[in-house]
Amino acid sequence: MKLHFLGANRQVTGSRYCLEVEGKRVLIDSGMFQERSFQPRNWDPPMFPPESIAAMLLTHVHIDHCGLIPRLVKQGFQAPIYATEPSVGLVDIMMRDAAEIQEEDIGYKLKRHQREGRTGPFPYEPLYTVADVDRCVPLFQLIKYEQAVQVTPNVTARFFDAGHILGSAMIQVDATENGRTTRIVFSGDIGQQDKPIVRDPSLLNDADYIVMESTYGDRNHPHPGDTETQLAEAVNEAVARKGNVVIPTFAVERAQELVYHFGRLLRAGRIPPLPIFLDSPMAVDVTAVYLKFHDYCDEALLKMVHDQQAPFQYPSLKFVRTADQSKEINHVQPPCVIMASSGMCNAGRIKHHLKHNIEKPEATILFVGHQGEGTLGRQIVDGAKRVRIHGQFFQVRAKIAQIYGFSGHADHDGLMRWITHFQRPPRRLFLTHGEEAVALKLASEISEKLKYTTYVPQYRESVELG
User: What is the spatial distance between Cα 336 and Cα 316, in angstroms, rounded to a whole number?
Assistant: First the structure.
């Protein structure tokens, strides 16, 4: 029995593992590498022939977990992909968006080269196209949490709620070889306790081997305080200045949390009934999926539904789909709230709203998510006085604010809480999904405190599971 580590090894993105049992191969995730220095790995040839893979298990639909599925299908993969019901509802939206972005990027690059007088042929091609995404859809198989799935004759899987985003899962695999059954747990991305909308992450108690994420393994989240109070303060301060609140927003999870919190604040009279725009077609589509699968959400949201309070619908909320509708927001009399993608300000409609608001002292640019190194959002958060947007420079005169309570990942203490719930030490604990220094530090701490045998695998390393 072998476990092959094919991504998210000593770095955060690109989740992919292959479990080999009795000659059958099962993939767990097939995610895209998103860090700039690791993006060339997206083009690496498969370690195994795609047609030789018997099945795939998908933990959740973030692009660093599902983003290379269409490329794998393009290369010959045709096996079942098992995922929770909400994940199946979301994954087509995510993959289709990624394909469209790639096709658009190639189109822009070709047009630029034509303007510059370059001659072809040009070797550019996307990782995959929308047509490749269409070929993926029939492969997905719906499953429920804790339902036993016979993946191959020797592999059974159960999915448990990871509390990260709607439909996210940690996967328990029982694999039998030579008459002996081994249990491997893949944590996926572990969520925080007491988050709105999603349920708390499951706590498992038995495994022979554990593959655990370590994204925030060396630190705890800054004390979030009362998220709704901070949101209310940001809005009310901007209203007093007669300015807009512009929020760079991730389309999955973050947008739905914000819509949920603003609805509660409006119903409680803690903010005035000002216009609130969700300007992201993808976020609008994702919100519809959240509404459809509200039975998978936490008790507070279910109570709102039971009390006929629509958690993602209220009179002042406007869903914005078309480019023309987006442009019309610029003519709305302030104050209003504008949530738009992308969450790190690197692309999308948020850049247009920043252009119209960042030089206005009465406006607030409110960040509710991590801003990656080198991104426009990071420049603004770090205090840049002038930023470049669409080739033009703008002075940063708006108020810049941050709220820290929105992270979907367990922090150091959350990860330690999860791993210490196991009733016996695993034969080996593998740390993945963390920057190299972070994963190594957490591995050392767990080894020292819990006496676990820990290991941080390298990219494309194979390990025998005895």
Answer: 10
| Radius of gyration of the chain measured on its C-alpha atoms | 23
Q: What is the pLDDT of residue 208?
A: 98
CB 4 within 8 A of CB 462: yes
* Closest CA relative to residue 59, chosen from 151, 160, 148: 160
CATH class (in words) of the domain with range 2-219+408-464: alpha beta
Number of alpha helices (DSSP H) and beta strands (DSSP E) in the chain: 13, 22
Q: Which residues contact 433 (CB under 8 A, 6 or more apart)?
A: 8, 12, 15, 189, 213, 214, 215, 439
Q: Could you tell me which residue, 389 or 111, shows the higher pLDDT?
A: 389
* Dihedral over Cα of 150, 154, 159, 164: its sign: negative
Per-residue pLDDT, averaged over 238-250, amounts to 96
User: Quick count: other Cβ atoms within 10 Å of Cβ 371?
Assistant: 20
Residues of the chain with CATH 3.60.15.10: 2-219+408-464
Separation between Cα atoms, residue 359 and residue 451, nearest integer Å:
55
For the domain made up of 227-402, the CATH class stated in words is alpha beta
Cα 105 to Cα 108, 109, 170, 296, distances in angstroms:
5, 6, 34, 36
Quote the pTM value. 0.89
Q: Is there a contact between 422 and 183 (Cβ–Cβ < 8 Å)?
A: no
Task: Render pLDDT for 111-124 as a digit per residue (tens, 0 to 9).
Answer: 767 777 776 655 57
- Kindly report, residue by residue over 78-107, the tens digit of the pLDDT: 999 999 999 999 999 999 988 988 887 777
Chain centre distance of CA 375: 17
Element (H, E) at 147: none
Query: Which residues of the chain form CATH 3.40.50.10890?
Result: 227-402
* First-to-final CA distance of the chain: 7
Q: What are the DSSP calls for 91-109, one per residue?
A: HHHHHHHHHHHHHHHHHHH
Residue with the two structure tokens 């070797």: 123
